[in-house]
Amino acid sequence: MRFDFLTLFPEICEVFLTKSIIGRAEKKGLVEFYYHHIRDYAFDKHKRVDDTPYGGGKGMLMIAEPIAACFENICSKIEKRPKLIYMSPRGKILNQEKAKKLSKLSNIAILCGRYEGIDQRFIDAFVDEEISIGNYVVTGGELPGLILADSIIRLLPGVLSSEICYEDESHFDGKTLEYPQYTKPAIWRGRSVPEVLLSGHHANILEWKNSMKKNIHIDD
Ligand code: SAH
Question: How far apart are CA 9 and CA 13, in angstroms?
């Protein structure tokens, strides 16, 4: 699967995606990342990518044209136009079901906003979907974009050691959260591991695990 990031901070994305499980997935050829610096597509000599909003208001907005030129350049290099997702607090909130659906695609482009966001005309003209990581605001779309990419990549066949790894996990069925887990030593600072996990009795262990699964909490 191919990911194209449109961002003003490619290095933020790169440092995360080259590490650990995701980094190994790339080395194995299961996933490819391309980073596109929106500033490279700025058209004036100051390489300007932001400007003041019409109608007044605080802060700056990202100018439409550099982002459009950046996306068109990506499209010209790939056979299939990627689905363009804009990370936005105004988007639909990401969940496991959405990650699963997106993991079936061959390529996705992720647009990371900065400042107060992006000229709406770019969104109207190019963006296929707006996705939010939750009802709060962060300073840029890179972390949200990485969260989206990570949630998709770990579902791709071959990325985790076995599919069991995620089929048993929180949110897989959209209803339940994983049981608590323990590793060595069996007693840590006076706290022991639940007896049943040390019993070697598979049926009882399975029953315990199922009984310890919880329903998703909607709100606290
Ligand atoms: N003024 C905007 C917030 C801009 S925050 C508003 O009130 O809606 C700057 C950038 O951070 C956004 O363009 C977006 O790409 C990213 N961002 C911030 N919060 C986000 C969230 N909850 N989910 C996804 N992206 C987010």
Answer: 7
